[in-house]
Amino acid sequence: MTVFPLKFRPDENGTVLFADDAGGYFRSDADFLDRYANDCLSLPDESFLKANGHSFDHRDDLSYAAFAYRWARRLYAPTPLDYLILVPTLRCNLACGYCQVSRVNEGTPGFDWDEETLAAVLRYVDGLTTTRMKIEFQGGEPLLQLDILQRVRSFCRERFQVAEFVVCTNLQTVSAEAWEFLAAPDTFISTSLDADAQTHQRQRTITPEKTAHFASNLRSAIDRFGSDKVSALPTLDIRSLPSPGAVVNSFTSFGFRSIYLRPVNYQGFARKRFAAKDTTAEWNAYHSSFIDFLVEHNWTAELPIEEYYFVHCLRRVLQSRHNGHTDLRNPNILGEGYLVVDYDGTVFPTDEARMVTRIGQFDFGMGNIKTGIDRSKLDPLNAESSNNFHPDCVHCPYQAYCGTDLVDDLSRYGRIDMPKHLTDFCQRHMHIFDKIFEMIYSADVKVQKTVAIWAGLPEFEPALAKVHQ
Amino acid sequence: MSTEQMLYIDVQPAFLQFVPDVISRFGYLHPGLRVTGQAPVVIFLNGTHDRAAIERDFRFCLFRQKIYAETLSLRSTLIDGVMGR
Predict the structure, then answer these.
(1) Is A170 inside a domain boundary?
(2) Chain B environment of A71 (Cβ under 8 Å)
(3) pLDDT number for residue B2
(4) CB pairs below 8 Å between A and B: how many?
(5) Chain B residues with beta carbon closer than 8 angstroms to that of A36
(6) How many domains are there within chain A?
(7) What interface predicted TM-score (ipTM) does this complex get?
(8) Model pTM?
(9) Residue A60 has what pLDDT?
(10) Residue boundaries of the structural domains of chain B
C-alpha cells in the first residue's frame, strides 16, 4: 500500500490536521504523525487511509485514478474569456479617502472612453468565442457614462446567448435614465456601504446630506429591484473598525444577508493615506470576531447571515471546482478568463494590476484594446501561478483549497519570492482556513448550525469532521 | 556575555539523509537561529526561545522533508497525468 502524500498542521489542542493534494482531510494525533513519518503505520491506520481515499495498491487502480480525478478537479482550468471589467470613465462624483481605483474629479476632461475606444471594445467583444458574457462596469463612477453603458449592453445582448451586467456605482446621483437602465433584469447593482452610516459618511460621503442621499438611493434600489439584484460591499479602515453588530445591523436593515468584509487594500492610491501594509494580524483578529458574531447571530436569527469570502473558502474546502472568486484560484493564470479595459483602452489582467500600474509601481499593461493585446508580459508570472510545487505551499495542508495572488505579492513587496508565510496573502488565508477547520471540528451546536448553513446543508453532517484515532 | 544555549536533537537513521535540506529549510523559517551538526543536530538558542517549540518545529521539518522527498516522484507522476503531459 502506498499513501498519497499527507501534509499536516498541529493545532493548539494537540490534535493534527492532515490533508492531501486532492483536498481530502482528516484529523488525528501526534502518534499517528509519528507512525506515518516513520513508516510504521498500524493495520487500523492502513484501513482508515484506504477507506478514505488516501492510499492505493497499484498505479492505475481505482484508488489511484480516483485520487488523480479529485486532484484534477481541484485545479482551475481557465475558460474562454467570458468576463470583462470595463472602465468607461475615471471621473467620479465622490472623493473617498481610500479610493482604490484612481479616480479624478467629475469635471476633469480626458479620462473617458472616446468613440474610437468604444468601437475597439465592441470589436474585441464581437470576436470572442463564448456564448455567455458578463460585463462589469467600473470607474470612476460608471453612471457618468450612461450612454456608453447602454451601447455596450445593447451590443452584448445582441451578440451573446446570455449576457449579464453589473454596474459598480456609488449610487450617489442616479438620474431617471440611470434608474431605467438599472431596472433591466439582466443588470445588477454593486455598491459600497461602509459598515454603518457614520462610517460611510466619514470615509465616503463626508456630509450628512450626501449620506442621506446615498441611503435613500440604496433604499430605492432595493425597494424597486429587490435585494437579489443589489449587492453592497463594506471597505473597513483597520485603524477604526466598527463593531460586528453595527455592520450586521446596517446591512440587514437594507435586507442584505451576505457581507463581504474587505480591509482598505494596500494598493492604488489608498496606500498614500492608509498605513494598511502591516496590519494583517489586527485584521485577522477582527475577522475572527466577526465570524463568531455571525455564529451567535445565526443561532437565533430567522434569516442567517454570511461573510462572503469566508463562505467561499469554506466551500473550497468542502468541494472542488469552486473557482468563482478571481483572487483565489490555483493555478491563478492571469489574462485568460477575464480582462480589464481602462478608460484609455489599456488592457490589464486584473483590476488590482490596473491600480498597481496606475501608481507607477509595475507596468501590467497588456497593450491597448485599439492596437492589440499582448499577453507575453504575463508569461513569467503565469509560470509561477500554481502553488502545487511551491517550496512553502508544498508542505501546507491548505494548499488544495488555497491559491496564489502574484499581483498582490508584487504590490506589497515588489517581488513574488517572499517567504510565503510572511506574506499578507498567506497569513490571511492561513487564518481563514484555521478558522474553517476549527469550526468544522467544533462540538458546539451553534457553530455546527452555521457551518451547515454556509455549506448549503440542511443540518450539520458529522462526516465532514473525519477523525482517525 | 553570551547567553546562548545549545539544543541537541537526535536524528533517527531514517531521517539522516534529509538533515542538510532540513537545516536549510529550518534556517529559512527561523532566520535568527543557528543550526549545525548531523546526529545530533545542534540548535543555538538564546533565553527567549521556547525549547520545546523549537524542537517540535525542527522535527516537523524533518517529517515534512522526508514525506516530500519520498513522495515527490509520485506527486510528479500524478500531476503529469492530471495535466495530460
Answers:
(1) yes
(2) 78-79, 82
(3) 58
(4) 46
(5) 67
(6) 2
(7) 0.94
(8) 0.94
(9) 83
(10) 5-83
- Closest-CA distance of chain B to residue A11, Å: 13
Give the one of B67, B81, B82 whose C-beta lies nearest to A37's C-beta: B67
Q: Name every chain B residue with its beta carbon within 8 A of the beta carbon of A7.
A: 64, 67
| Same domain, yes or no: A91 and A7 | no
Same domain for A123 and A33, yes or no, is no
Residue A469 pLDDT: 87
A366 in a domain, yes or no?
Answer: yes
- Residue A251 corresponds to which cell in the numbers above? 446591512
Contact A6 B78 (CB under 8 A): no
- HSE of A30, CA atoms in CB hemisphere, 13 A: 9
Nearest chain A residue to B66 by CA: give it: A37
pLDDT of the residue at A278: 67
B40 cis-preceded (ω within 30 degrees of 0): yes
What pLDDT sits at residue A285?
95
- For residues A196 and A262, membership in a common domain is answered with yes
* Residue A237: predicted pLDDT: 87
* A9/A141 same-domain check: no
Do the domain assignments include residue A436?
A: no
Q: Do A50 and A99 fall into the same domain?
A: no
Same structural domain for residues A102 and A68? no
Domain residue limits at A236: 83-277+333-376
Chain A residues within an 8 Å CB radius of B82:
68, 71-72, 75
The pLDDT of residue A193 is 93
Task: Pick from B11, B25, B68, B79 the residue to mutate for testing the A interface (most A CBs within 10 Å).
Answer: B79
Residue B48's contacts (CB-CB under 8 Å, 6 or more residues apart) are none
Domain boundary among A22, A42, A74: A74
Do A226 and A361 belong together in one domain? yes
Same domain as A99, residue A32: no
> Do B74 and A5 make contact, defined as CB atoms within 8 angstroms?
yes
B78·A395 Cβ contact <8 A = no
Cell 472616446 -> residue: A114
Choosing from A342, A376, A410, the residue where a domain stops is A376
| Contact flag B12-A388 (C-beta cutoff 8 Å) | no
Contact A68/B75, CB-based, under 8 Å?
no
- Partners of A389 on chain B (C-beta within 8 Å) are 75, 79
Q: What is the pLDDT of residue A105?
A: 87
pLDDT digits (tens, 9 = 90+) for B16-67: 999 999 999 999 999 989 999 888 999 998 878 889 999 999 999 999 999 9
- A35 CA: distance to closest CA in chain B (Å): 11
Asked if residue A328 is part of any domain, the answer here is no
Q: Residues in chain A with pLDDT < 70?
A: 100-101, 266-278
